[in-house]
Design a protein that fits this description.
The complex is a heterodimer of chains A (412) and B (238). Chain A has 412 residues and is an alpha+beta fold. Chain A is 56% helix and 16% strand. Chain A has 13 helices and 12 strands. Chain A is elongated. Chain B is built from 7 helices and 10 strands. Chain B is globular and about 45 Å long. In chain B, helix 6 (176-193) links the parallel strand 7 (164-168) and strand 8. Chain B is an alpha/beta fold and 238 residues long. Classes of the chains: A alpha+beta (412), B alpha/beta (238). Chain A binds chain B through residues 1, 5, 9, 12, 15-16, 312-313, 315-324, 326, 404-406, 409, and chain B through 51, 54, 56-57, 76-77, 80-81, 83-85, 89, 91, 93, 95, 97-100, 104, 108-109, 111-114, 117, 156.
C-alpha cells in the first residue's frame, strides 16, 4: 500500500475520533507553543539588549580597574584603586596611544541630592565634558560644564530629567543650587530625556567635574573607569594593544596574568550578552521541550487506548487483506499526523502569543521591542513533534499490527 | 473443480497451558461455485473451521489446500493477499467502519489491493448496485437499518470479485425479512455470478438454501449431505 493511501486511511481514522484526536494533540500544541514563545521572546530580548549595547559605540573602550572577574567570587576584586592620574596622563600621550580619539576618566557613586526640602538619590558621575559626545547625551537647556571648570574643581552640575522632576517639580532648575553631601553645586544644564539604557540611565544622573567629585564627594585619588574612544573603528584593536602596553608599563607589570586592570569593548559586551541570552533561551526551550516528551507519552497512551478500542476495525482490515505492515503504517501515520498537526498549531499559537506580548511590552515598557519569528525553532519544533510521533507511535502501532485477525474480530 | 481440499484438519487452542481442541480432524472438499452451509451448535467448531478456511488462522494439524496450494506454503503476507483478492467475508456483526459512508466502507478492500485508485469508485458502485443500495451511497452506517448494513458488508465482500465468500451467521442479527433479503442476495451471487459461498448458520431454514450442509458436532463432521429439497428465495428484493 502506498504511503498516500495509508495517509488517507490514517486521516479517516483520526477524523472518526475528532475530539480525542484534538485532545491528544493538545500536549504537543502546548509544548511547541511554549518553545516558539520562549525562543521568540528570547531573540526579541537579545535584539533589544544588543541594540542598547550597540548604542555605546563601537569605538569605545572602557578601562576597568582590578582583575577581570572570572567568577562571582572575583567580583570584589574589581573595586580597586589601580587607575590613577598618571595612567590618564600616560594614555593621553600620542607616543603611547597614537590612535586615541577621546579619553575621559569617570568616578561614580550614589549620594542623596537635596534642593530645599526635596531629596533624591541619583547616581553621581564625575566626568569631563566629553561624556556628552561619548554617550550621545546633550543638554536640553543650559550647557555642559567646561574643561576649565574641570581643571578648577568647579561646583557645576548637569542633571538628568528625572532628577529635575524629583527635586524641582515644575520649577526652573537652571541656576539653582543643590546640595550633595554638604557640598553645594550650581545646576548649569539639564539633560534631554534619554530613557532607560541598558548600562546607563542619564535621566536619574547628576554629572559633575571629576576633579570636584574626587576631592569633595568621594575623597579618592583614583578613577572607577577610564573611557577611551579610538579615532576610527579600524584602530580599535590596535588601540587596545597600545592601552594594555601603556598601562602595564605604568604599573610595572610584566606578566599579563597579573594585570590589575582590564578592558571592555562593545564587541565583548555583545558577545557576553549574546552568550547569556542564548544560554537562557536554550535552557528555557529545553524545559519546554520536556513537555513535548510528556505530550509524546500522552500520545502513546491514547494511541494504545485507540488500538484496543479499534481492535475490531483492525481485525476487519486484516480480514479484507491488510498486512501487518499496512496496519502499522496507518497507526504510525496517525500518531505522526497528530504530532505534526499539533506542531503546526503550536507554531501558529506561539507566533501569535509572542507577537501579542511584543506589542504589550512595547507599549507598557516603552521599549523598542521587535517581534522575531524564530524560523529555526519553528522547523525544529515541528521536526521534534514529528519525531515524538514516530517514537511514541511506534509501540502502539506495533501492538496494532500484531493483532491476530480472529482475536480482533471476536473482540467485544 | 476443487477449490478447497481439507484433510484431517485440526485446531487446538492452547491457553495458559490448557489445550482445548476445537476441531478434531475434519476432511471434505468444496468445489468452485458450490453453496455450502456449515451447521452445528455453538462450540461445535464451525467458527474455527471458517477462520481456518478463510485464512484468518493457521491449523495445528492436517492439511488445507486452497486453490491447489497448501496453507503451509503461504507466508502471512501471501495469506493477506489471498484474503484480499480471492476471499470475501461477511460477519454476523456487519463490522462496518463507524462514521464512514457506504461508498468508503465498500472501498476498504481496494485500499489493500494495489488496484489504481481511479477505478475504485466504479468498482465500489457496481458492488453496491449488486446489493441494491445505490440510493444509499453517501449514508453513514449509523443511518442504515440492520439489513442494509449487512448488504453493505456483502458489497464490501464482493467488491474485488472474490472466488469465495465466507459468511459467518450473516442473518444472526437480522429480523426474518432482512435475513431473507440477505440470503436472496447470497443465493443470487452464487447462481448468477458463480461465487463459491460458505455459510455458517445454526438455523436449519437458512442452511437449507444451500446446496449442501456440513454438520459439525464436537469438532468433527457428523454429517455431510446434499440438500434434497433446496429452498430458494422466491424473490430478490431490489
Amino acid at each position: 500500500m502506498f504511503i498516500r493511501r495509508a495517509f488517507t486511511s490514517a486521516l479517516r481514522g483520526l477524523n472518526t475520533h475528532r475530539t480525542r484526536s484534538a485532545l491528544t494533540m493538545l500536549g504537543i500544541v502546548i509544548g511547541v507553543t511554549a518553545i516558539i514563545l520562549i525562543v521568540s521572546l528570547g531573540e526579541g530580548a537579545q535584539a533589544l539588549i544588543l541594540g542598547e549595547v550597540q548604542s555605546i559605540g563601537a569605538k569605545v573602550i572602557a578601562i576597568v580597574p582590578g582583575r577581570e572577574p572570572k567568577g562571582p567570587s572575583d567580583f570584589l576584586s574589581t573595586f580597586t584603586d589601580s587607575l590613577k592620574q598618571k595612567d590618564l596622563d600616560a594614555l593621553s600621550r600620542s607616543t603611547n596611544v597614537p590612535h586615541l580619539g577621546k579619553i575621559m576618566p569617570i568616578v561614580f557613586g550614589s549620594y542623596s541630592v537635596s534642593y530645599g526640602s526635596e531629596t533624591y538619590r541619583p547616581t553621581i558621575y564625575g566626568a569631563t565634558p566629553l561624556f556628552g559626545e561619548i554617550y550621545d547625551v546633550h543638554p536640553k537647556t543650559g550647557r555642559l560644564f567646561s574643561d576649565d571648570e574641570v581643571r578648577g574643581y568647579a561646583d557645576t552640575a548637569v542633571i538628568g530629567s528625572k532628577v529635575v522632576e524629583e527635586l524641582f517639580g515644575n520649577e526652573e532648575a537652571l541656576g539653582k543650587r543643590v546640595k550633595i553631601k554638604e557640598k553645594s553645586f550650581r545646576v548649569v544644564g539639564v539633560l534631554e530625556t534619554t530613557g532607560q539604557s541598558f548600562f546607563l540611565n542619564f535621566d536619574s544622573a547628576v554629572i559633575v567635574p571629576y576633579t570636584t567629585a574626587q576631592q569633595y564627594l568621594f575623597g579618592i585619588k583614583y578613577f572607577n573607569r577610564i573611557v577611551i574612544e579610538a579615532d576610527t573603528e579600524d584602530h580599535v584593536a590596535e588601540t587596545i594593544e597600545d592601552v594594555n602596553t601603556t598601562l602595564r608599563a605604568s604599573h610595572n607589570i610584566t606578566d599579563p596574568e597579573k594585570d590589575d586592570f582590564f578592558l571592555e569593548t562593545q564587541a565583548d559586551a555583545m558577545k557576553t550578552v549574546s552568550t547569556i541570552t542564548d544560554v537562557l533561551t536554550l535552557f528555557l526551550a529545553a524545559v519546554a521541550a520536556i513537555s513535548l516528551i510528556v505530550g509524546g507519552v500522552g500520545i502513546m497512551n491514547i494511541m494504545l487506548v485507540s488500538v484496543t478500542e479499534r481492535t475490531r476495525e483492525i481485525g476487519l482490515r486484516k480480514a479484507v487483506g491488510a498486512k501487518g505492515s499496512d496496519i502499522m503504517l496507518q497507526f504510525l501515520l496517525e500518531a505522526v499526523i497528530l504530532t505534526v498537526a499539533g506542531g503546526l498549531v503550536g507554531v501558529a499559537l506561539g507566533a501569535f502569543f509572542s507577537f501579542a506580548i511584543s506589542l504589550i511590552l512595547g507599549r507598557t515598557l516603552a521599549v523598542d521591542w521587535e517581534f522575531v519569528f524564530p524560523v529555526g525553532a519553528a522547523f525544529l519544533g515541528i521536526g521534534v513533534a514529528a519525531a515524538v510521533g514516530l517514537v511514541f507511535g511506534l509501540y502502539p502501532a506495533r501492538v496494532a499490527s500484531k493483532k491476530s485477525p480472529i482475536e480482533a474480530l471476536r473482540y467485544e | 473443480m476443487t477449490l478447497i481440499e481439507v484433510r484431517e484438519l485440526s485446531k487446538t487452542y492452547a491457553d495458559d497451558g490448557v489445550s482445548t481442541p476445537a476441531l478434531r480432524g475434519v476432511s471434505f472438499d468444496i468445489g468452485r461455485g458450490e453453496f455450502v452451509a456449515i451447521m452445528g451448535p455453538s462450540g461445535s467448531g464451525k467458527s474455527t473451521l471458517l477462520h481456518l478456511l478463510g485464512f484468518l488462522d493457521r491449523p495445528t494439524g492436517g492439511t488445507y489446500r486452497f486453490d491447489g496450494r497448501g496453507i503451509d506454503e503461504y507466508t502471512d503476507h501471501e495469506l493477506a493477499e489471498v484474503r484480499n483478492r480471492k476471499m470475501g467475508f461477511v460477519f454476523q456483526t456487519f463490522n462496518l467502519l463507524p462514521r464512514t459512508d457506504v461508498l468508503e466502507n465498500v472501498k476498504l478492500p481496494l485500499l489493500y489491493s494495489g488496484i489504481p485508485e481511479k477505478r475504485w469508485n466504479r468498482m465500489a458502485e457496481e458492488a453496491i448496485e449488486a446489493v441494491g443500495l445505490s440510493h444509499r451511497l453517501s449514508h453513514e452506517s449509523s443511518q442504515l437499518s440492520g439489513g442494509e448494513r449487512q448488504r453493505v458488508a456483502i458489497a464490501r465482500a464482493l467488491v474485488l470479485r472474490p472466488e469465495i465468500i465466507f459468511a459467518d451467521e450473516p442473518t444472526g442479527n437480522l429480523d426474518s425479512k432482512s435475513g431473507k433479503a440477505v440470503m436472496a442476495i447470497l443465493e443470487d451471487l452464487n447462481r448468477t455470478r458463480g461465487h463459491t459461498i460458505v455459510l455458517i448458520t445454526h438455523e436449519t431454514y437458512t442452511a437449507e438454501q444451500a446446496e449442501r450442509i456440513i454438520h459439525l458436532m464436537d469438532g468433527e463432521i457428523a454429517n455431510d449431505e446434499k440438500v434434497k429439497a433446496r429452498r430458494t428465495s422466491d424473490h430478490f428484493i431490489k
